[in-house]
Amino acid sequence: MSGPGSRLEWTDIRRDLLARIQTGVWKPGDSIPREVELAAQYGCTRSTVGRALRDLATAGFLERRRKGGTTVSANPVRKAPLEVPIIADAIRKSGKVASYRLLTCHIGMPPRVVSARLGLGPAGAVMFVAALYLADGVPHQLEHRWLVPAAMPGLEAEVLERTPVDEWLLHNAPLTRATIEIEAIDAPKAVADALQMPVGGAALLVTRQSWRQAQVIGLLQLYHAPGVKLSTAI
Amino acid sequence: MSGPGSRLEWTDIRRDLLARIQTGVWKPGDSIPREVELAAQYGCTRSTVGRALRDLATAGFLERRRKGGTTVSANPVRKAPLEVPIIADAIRKSGKVASYRLLTCHIGMPPRVVSARLGLGPAGAVMFVAALYLADGVPHQLEHRWLVPAAMPGLEAEVLERTPVDEWLLHNAPLTRATIEIEAIDAPKAVADALQMPVGGAALLVTRQSWRQAQVIGLLQLYHAPGVKLSTAI
DNA sequence: CAGTGGTCTAGACCACTAG
DNA sequence: TAGTGGTCTAGACCACTGA
Fold first, then answer.
1. Considering the entire predicted model, what is its pTM?
2. Which of A49, A226, B70, B181 lies in the 20 to 30 Å Cα band around A90?
3. How far: A68 CA to D16 C1' (Å)?
């Protein structure tokens, strides 16, 4: 059976297996055939079905265990990839003109909440940067950054007059790890003014803390103007 | 060179390559050696370095082209995996007791905005479901769903009295594709009352539209109580 | 202990694409 | 057209883990 038409690729097998899952041929919790059997069915080697199975497993559709075999996930946890782009790029991609304004840039003591999160002692001064990104001249996103100077040699206020902070950091102080939190807050006055929105209105706040290896780089707070949405897809 | 100590695995090679990128041995835009050369350097086969390279490419660190070779991404776009969990599971995972209340469940005409997004004609009635999820008895998340009845045979209000909507759907009307939008809104009265928060306060709104193949399943709006955050990490 | 997935090797052919 | 990555095969050994 299965005329040798043209050779099967692992994506073909992936598609076929996924169809069996999504159409209910294999139900959540079911065990599916071993790699060797599937390989025989598809007329290919174990490596090839293995690649398809592995891919479905990392996507959350299958669970695999040595000796236990492969089963269909009972509660597939889908993951939506949320992109962390260069802001100017994102604005341009939506067909608008991106511009940038540096609001503040100085070294000083951060609020306690911030220094606590950054794990800094009471004497730890950091650089504070406030910047505004505009789309077609309209405020799009306000960002507050607290940056640990030790982690970024060569950062000067002058540089940030011309280069958006995020781009400078990406090329000069790349992160290796970051945590991200997304929440809605009532816009305080400073935020509302910058984004030209009413005080107390709903703003989307993205807080990101980043590290390079074990070294804390800094804390970033992004405030999005009303109407701005984060989008993704599964 | 490179004493054969113990055999290298592809994750070892991945780690080593990533280190070369992150420490700046290879800078953004640089071309890196061909697979064959790397294989020789690491003393393994092309398949093994290939797997490491492929993985770094899908993670956004490398860009690969046939004949063009492999280069370090100039603007690495990091992707943060945002999980879409069963709500009760998420609540339990945070160490709290999850409970659920069905508020409304009836068939009728949806608001115009909704029927437009669902691609329904003016005669398209849908099922509307409002439900509240609580953590330790405190309102955690309110959800409004508009579900196309054709896509979900067997859905009855009675069922939803006992089973959380999201779990029922996961097992009975699995989605194959979804779009997700995240934004902050001023809570309207209905939302504010359900979440026990002030009217006009900031609420986090997640809107999700889902399909099974080409068939629209429905539209979901999740309102998160103040203080609730979506978290992820890179 | 035995069975399953995880990994590697050595080789081959092919698809794409830069020059 | 020639060089690169993408894929497959056939075989092997090993790590984990359920019975």
1. 0.84
2. B70
3. 10
